[in-house]
């Protein structure tokens, strides 16, 4: 029986693969649910309750002593603190009054209070052996050399990026890498896309998409790497680089990441490498957990087998050609 | 004087030369991307990406032209085969290539107007043109537009699987190309078959 190729098994397999690869675009497994709020001392929660009564939602109520009635008012959105986020963040064991004046417990707040001095990371963590592994001193040194510090030394504090009420460790966690990327990039985009926050420091306007027009597969890069992968200088002691580079010094050479000795292994995937993710024949398997990076995630077995087969073919051809000539 | 048959029409020769050139560009840029090394770049990464993308799109278009013309101009008949006695014919041809050719034996399936390919050629061409080339194009489209690839396939990164298929196919096609070029030297003269693909006339 004669079989036209159009109906051969080869075509069927190719079509099957086509449908497997391009069938309805599914979403990645949804991020793990937010970590369960650990048991916080009830006392802290009770103490903070007085603040969250007003600052925990969009609306607050107070008793107007002048005309003796309850008044509903809208809270300034910039002063709303989500208590669920707060009690999941790094400083969840803190009372509000640990950082803010206890005088805030009085309403209406004294106008002078806005002049209060707020401590920064180094005020608590400098020289603290309990936090040695975070290398706060090195972070401070690196930050001092960064573009942010150069331009806005006096006003640019840790809190500009690490919101005191919501900041939590991400890179140093077992969170899915996609979540780490989204979280960390949101820190940068908070200013570089959000004009409101940026206006505190500068009148500049950024167009992230236009500035990155040169970047191939822009969306894929934005989804799979953090801004700091290209916009910071690595420091071996730090898990997350804090020396943000001027725009012109950013990494622009594709091959810095797209190679077996990928820059990503010293930054985004450093924590996973430190925790020795199992290799299964790939270069940079920790990257492969979430992304395929051409040039960086290669399968040694496949490459070796292919090179061996290639050599066998070349030797075979050489022998065959020699026999044809000499026999 | 050697017998001559007009076996390769103009459209086929034009398609063939483009196919060969595009595959060469794809293999070179592909090797450069896959084994990229900042210190020893075969081709600059960005240039290699552009070269690979453009050549890939052109190869896909060229392939579409091949399929359409192959069907409409009757060339498909050379790509049909009968399962009956198929292994036997493959073995006979393989035996000729490994033994007979050195003894000066006549080929068991001489080329004629009705039989353009011997059984081994037919098998490998069918596999390359109707399985591996579509596969390399489909997976290539996936890598060119990564947004359309399913994120997870059986708990494995979809892009990674797409790339593995692309890579395996690319390796197979590269091996085929090397063997194909070598076998093209087995005409009456080492250059005969190369000339055939230029002037269309097959010499035997």
Oligomer: heterodimer
Average pLDDT metric of chain B: 91
Q: What is the count of β-strands of chain A?
A: 5
Biggest sheet strand line-up of chain A: 2-3
| Rg over C-alpha atoms of chain A, rounded to the nearest angstrom | 28 Å
Measured distance between first and last alpha carbons of chain B = 10 Å
Largest sheet of chain B: 2 strands, antiparallel
Percent range for β-strand residues of chain B: 5-15%
Biggest sheet strand order of chain B reads 1-5
The portion of residues assigned to helices of chain A is 25-40%
Distance between the termini of chain A: 40 Å
Describe what you observe in this structure.
The complex is a heterodimer of chains A (327) and B (204). With 327 residues, chain A is mainly alpha-helical. In chain A, 39% of the residues lie in helices and 6% in strands. In chain A, the strands form two sheets. In chain A, strands 2-3 form a two-stranded antiparallel ribbon. In chain A, strands 4-5 form a two-stranded antiparallel sheet. In chain A, strand 2 (59-64) and strand 3 form a beta hairpin. The longest helix of chain A has 27 residues, at 300-326. By secondary structure, chain B is mostly helical. In chain B, strands 1-5 form a two-stranded antiparallel sheet. Chain B has a two-stranded antiparallel ribbon with strand order 3-4. The longest helix of chain B has 28 residues, at 45-72. The interface between A and B is large, with 56 and 57 residues.
Write the layout of secondary structure elements.
The complex is a heterodimer of chains A (327) and B (204).
Chain A: E1 2-3, H1 9-22, H2 42-55, E2 59-64, E3 69-74, H3 83-86, H4 96-99, H5 121-125, H6 136-144, H7 147-152, H8 177-192, H9 195-198, H10 208-211, H11 218-224, H12 227-231, E4 232-233, E5 243-244, H13 270-274, H14 285-288, H15 300-326
Antiparallel strand pairs in A: 2-3, 4-5
Chain B: E1 4-6, H1 10-34, H2 45-72, E2 81-82, H3 86-103, H4 119-144, E3 152-153, E4 156-157, H5 158-183, H6 192-199, E5 201-203
Antiparallel strand pairs in B: 1-5, 3-4
Helix pairs in contact in B: 1-2, 2-4, 4-5
């Amino acid at each position: 029986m004669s079989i036209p190729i159009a109906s051969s098994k080869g075509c069927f397999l190719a079509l099957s693969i086509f449908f497997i690869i391009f069938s309805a675009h599914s979403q990645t497994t949804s991020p793990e649910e937010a970590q369960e709020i650990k048991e916080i001392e009830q006392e802290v929660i009770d103490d903070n309750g007085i603040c969250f009564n007003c600052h925990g939602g969009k609306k607050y109520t107070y008793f107007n002593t002048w005309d003796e009635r309850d008044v509903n008012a809208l809270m300034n959105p910039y002063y709303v603190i989500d208590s669920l986020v707060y009690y999941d963040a790094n400083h969840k064991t803190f009372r509000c009054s640990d950082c803010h004046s206890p005088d805030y417990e009085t309403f209406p707040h004294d106008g002078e209070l806005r002049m209060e001095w707020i401590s920064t990371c180094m005020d608590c963590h400098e020289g603290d052996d309990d936090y040695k592994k975070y290398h706060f001193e090195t972070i401070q040194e690196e930050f001092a050399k960064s573009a942010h510090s150069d331009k806005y030394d006096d006003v640019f504090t840790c809190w500009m990026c690490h919101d005191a009420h919501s900041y939590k460790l991400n890179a140093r966690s077992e969170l899915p890498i996609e979540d780490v990327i989204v979280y960390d990039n949101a820190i940068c985009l908070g200013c570089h896309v959000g004009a409101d926050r940026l206006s505190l420091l500068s009148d500049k306007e950024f167009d992230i998409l236009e500035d990155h027009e040169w970047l191939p597969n822009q969306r894929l890069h934005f989804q799979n790497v953090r801004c700091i992968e290209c916009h910071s200088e690595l420091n071996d002691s730090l898990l997350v680089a804090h020396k943000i580079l001027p725009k012109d010094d950013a990494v622009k050479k594709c091959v810095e990441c797209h190679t077996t000795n990928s820059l990503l292994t010293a930054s985004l995937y450093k924590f996973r490498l430190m925790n020795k993710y199992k290799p299964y024949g790939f270069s940079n398997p920790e990257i492969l957990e979430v992304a395929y990076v051409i040039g960086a995630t290669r399968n040694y077995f496949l490459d070796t087998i292919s090179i061996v087969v290639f050599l066998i073919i070349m030797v075979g051809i050489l022998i065959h050609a020699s026999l044809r000539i000499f026999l | 004087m050697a017998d001559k048959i007009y076996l390769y029409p103009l459209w086929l020769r034009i398609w063939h030369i483009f196919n060969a050139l595009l595959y060469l560009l794809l293999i070179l840029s592909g090797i450069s991307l896959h084994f990229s090394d900042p210190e020893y770049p075969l081709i600059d990464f960005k240039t290699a990406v552009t070269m690979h993308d453009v050549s890939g799109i052109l190869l896909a278009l060229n392939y579409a032209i091949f399929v359409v013309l192959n069907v409409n101009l009757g060339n498909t008949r050379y790509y049909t085969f009968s399962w009956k006695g198929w292994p036997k014919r493959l073995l006979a041809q393989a035996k000729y290539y490994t033994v007979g050719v050195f003894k000066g034996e006549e080929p068991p399936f001489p080329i004629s107007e009705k039989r353009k390919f011997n059984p081994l050629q037919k098998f490998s061409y069918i596999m390359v043109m109707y399985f591996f080339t579509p596969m390399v194009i489909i997976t290539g489209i996936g890598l060119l537009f990564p947004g359309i690839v399913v994120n997870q396939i059986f708990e494995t990164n979809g892009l990674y699987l797409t790339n593995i298929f692309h890579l395996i196919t690319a390796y197979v096609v590269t091996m085929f190309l090397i063997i194909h070029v070598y076998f093209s030297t087995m005409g009456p003269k080492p250059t005969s078959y190369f000339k055939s693909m230029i002037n269309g006339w097959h010499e035997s």
